[in-house]
Amino acid sequence: MTLVERDRELKLADRVAAVKRPAPKPATIASVAVLASLVVLGVLSIGGLGFSLPEIIGSLNNIPQFVARTLPWAWPGWHYDRDSATLVSDGWAPVWSILAAIASTIGIVIAGTFLAFLVSIPIAYGAARNTTPHAVVLVICRALGIVARAIPAVAFASIFVFLFSLGPLPGILAFFLHSIGMISKMMADAIEQIDEGPRLAIRSTGGSKAQEFWSGVVPQALPAWIAVGLHRADINLRETVILGYVGVAGLGLELSNAIHVLNYRRAFPIVLMIIVLCILFEVVSSIVRSRMLGVRPIGNGIGDTMVRAAAKRSTKIAVAITKPGSTEARAVAIQASMKRPWTGERMASRVAVWVAALVIVGSFVASQAKWSDLLTFWGNLPILLKKDNLWPPTFGIYSPEQVVNAVFVTFQVAFAATLMSAILSIVIGSLAARNVAPNRYVRNGFRVLLLVTRGVPELILAIIFVIVTGLGAQAGTLALAIGGVGLLGKLIADSLEEVPNGPERAISALGATRPQVYFASTVPMSIPAFVSHLLYMLEQNVRAATLLGIVGGGGIGLFLIDSLRVSNYAQASMFIILITLLVIVIEAVAIGIRRALK
Amino acid sequence: MTVSDITVVEITDLGKFYPGAADAALSGVSLTVRRGEVVVLLGLSGSGKSTLLRHIDGLELPSSGSVRALGEEVPALRGTALRALRGRIGFIFQQFEIVGPLTVLENVLTGSLSTLRGPRIGIWTYPRALRLKALGHLDRVGLLERAYQRADTLSGGQQQRVAIARALMQDPEILLADEPVASLDPESSSQVMSLIREIAAERGLTVVCSLHQVELALGWGDRIIGLRAGQVVLDTTTDGLTRDQVMEIYGRVATTTRELQAIEQELSEVRDALLSEELQKDDLQKKDRERDEDAR
């Protein structure tokens, strides 16, 4: 090395040393902090809950024994005879009663969601920034939504079960009140996202506020509203299981009864029915939703073909009208146009409206709710309000330490489950992304896996794990961990696919392998989305963990269900308040962190 | 066409300041419009044309000065009285502003809302006579056969014609049009402009229409009012007026920073529009590719 070269190198070293390192953005620090703390807390929680590999492997040995206790499945209409070890028929009566339970479950869900939908319209009107009549109204309407969202449906249901006695009505009212929270908020969001122009145009023709709303705002927001309602009905159907545990009629109650007497042969067919029902409902609602979003009938199915055929016939009418002619002919044409032609579109929408109306009316009938209770329950109020029946709330038989410990376990479950599903989801989600998976069979295979996982309600998973591994926080954690993969994996796969693919192409063009492209471009670009999904997952898991105890999955929910079981409502009200507060705190913290990430 | 001596719009020393904006949107604007006149408001974007039109319909409140329309002091009107006045004035928007998910016919029917009490949703909630009238107006703008289609399935030019039919439902005495063809291709533009002109002639309507193309304005209106930086810089009849004369006064040449900004803004809008078109094309191609892939 010559002196000159050496000199140059020294100078370069100086210059390198002098290169400024800009401080990282606050959002970057926040995401790193979130990721790091999630990992640390997750690992600590997994340790704290006493997970250990040998134990998990040990419990795998239970499986044959468990299977022996569950098989053969006793479908409704049969029962297992222990002595002869065969299934004995009970006739048709139990079949009808389970069908009635299915109808009642769907009825409760749809009736409750529909009532919430109706009531949410005025609340959303007041809660949307662009339609609210006054700032005070805005605050009140938003507060209503937040409170309704914070109180779990199961909390409402347990209060109503006390007021109205067991049956479908508490379920309908619980879904009604709790769903207002989500539906009214998302409806208001939809109102805020409309195009203001048409509304202004209606104002300019001299329309009143109400006319502006119904002619300018509602037509634009309605598809989004209906989608929200269907989505919420989906979620409510999954929650009917837990309402069954506090005494709301339907499939959940049947399941809870079967598990209560440890009759797993009867429980598993019901579990399967619930899963199938959830998946079917989701498929139907997604078909309706995609139609609402304006998807054209271009498929090869029977429905689309029929709709297209009908549309063809109606063009005759259209042609007849368009023929040019004299003033008289025009007048005739205008008169003829007063009758709206039966186009395929019109027929389809007419049929849809009638089907929807039938389904909704049918739900109110099928739920078999005793609506008269709404008039008579006032008689129960004095008993309810009598001191020590519901008020003041008390920890009762539980010591404060026990309660604090249960809350602590609830958080442990949530953090442990979030870490577990994150690890599983990164692998499965990546393989389900088009730009990462080696070929489309792998991608589609994992997509289907995620879809099926998402279809199974977490509470059902929790019940299965409780049966397999026994009561306790570990069962709850595993249920949340596996159930979470369905959602988190999909979110991760979607955000990987949404990454701009220019850099990916550039890096693979310079000769990088697939894994190199993945780590050099795909992953770094999707990290912000990943952090926010993870946070969302954690929030969901904390909410779910507060309730898992109800089905035996450990944590604070256990205390609630035990209080209800012994009809100690003063104690139950304490835990309802505690759970509600926990949910509000979590939501507030999550909102705060999201702000920091922006 | 006859222009009477009756004044229908009288604006005196109108000023409008938006909080936070450096310059006034309008300052010291005074003008009168007589019944039956067809007036063009000419100016670059940002010169205050839309703001001026919106004041006449009571969609904006002035910071100073007075706006009288059809004998009423517009800013003083509230509630029912304001709605009644708006019912007598038709307004055509640059972006059409029709309600996409509703049928074409129902969009036209919304023009009659000021004469009806209470909200309406669905064609059948409007009286039969109004429906017949709306169909007649649709026939006038050449869209009768589209009456029962969703409005967002129409092209831009057709949507603007629906908006014109909606304004006709009001039986307006004044028609205000805010850059009615700025979002349309040349072919639809001339269709829409001549439609407005014809309708004005048929009904003896007073029309105030804002435009930014000098060529379009010259052949079309009876009178041109030029706006620059919120002030009236030109007010003359079009008889014998040449393009150069207009250009001289109105000037495409920027004389103030504000105008420079306006021209820049216009250019960047055009660029953005082109760019987004390009992006959409890309997007569509990508979607097509994906669909092909899925199909395979």
Descriptive notes:
The complex is a heterodimer of chains A (598) and B (296). Chain A has 598 residues and is an all-alpha fold. Chain A has 25 helices and two strands. Chain B is an alpha/beta fold and 296 residues long. Helix content of chain B is 41%, strand content 20%. Chain B has nine helices and ten strands. In chain B, the strands form two sheets. Chain B has a six-stranded mixed sheet, with helices on both faces. The chains are: A mainly alpha (598), B alpha/beta (296). Chain A binds chain B through residues 195, 197-198, 200-208, 210-211, 213-216, 218-220, 222-223, 318, 321-322, 330, 333-335, 337-338, 340-341, 343, 345-346, 440, and chain B through 57, 59, 83-91, 93, 95-102, 106, 110-114, 116, 118-121, 123, 128, 131-132, 135-136, 139, 144-145, 147-148, 150, 163, 166-167, 169-170, 293.
Low-confidence stretches of chain B: none
Rg of Cα set of chain B:
21 Å
Residues in helices of chain B, as a percent range: 40-55%
What class would the helix/strand composition of chain A place it in?
A: mainly alpha
Question: How would you summarize the topology of this molecule?
Answer:
The complex is a heterodimer of chains A (about 600) and B (about 300).
Chain A (H helix, E strand, L loop, with lengths): L2 H16 L7 H23 L4 H8 L1 H9 L7 E4 L4 E4 L3 H35 L7 H16 L2 H12 L3 H25 L3 H9 L4 H37 L5 H10 L3 H29 L9 H21 L4 H11 L6 H23 L6 H4 L4 H5 L14 H32 L8 H16 L2 H12 L3 H26 L3 H8 L4 H35 L8 H9 L3 H29 L1
Antiparallel strand pairs in A: 1-2
Helix pairs in contact in A: 2-18, 5-6, 5-8, 5-10, 5-15, 6-8, 7-8, 8-10, 9-10, 10-11, 10-12, 11-12, 13-15, 18-21, 18-23, 19-21, 20-21, 21-23, 22-23, 23-25, 24-25
Chain B lengths: L6 E10 L9 E9 L3 E5 L6 H8 L7 E6 L2 E2 L5 H10 E4 L11 H6 L18 H13 L15 H14 L4 E5 L7 H18 L2 E6 L2 H5 L4 E6 L2 E7 L5 H8 L6 H39 L1
Helix pairs in contact in B: 4-5, 5-6
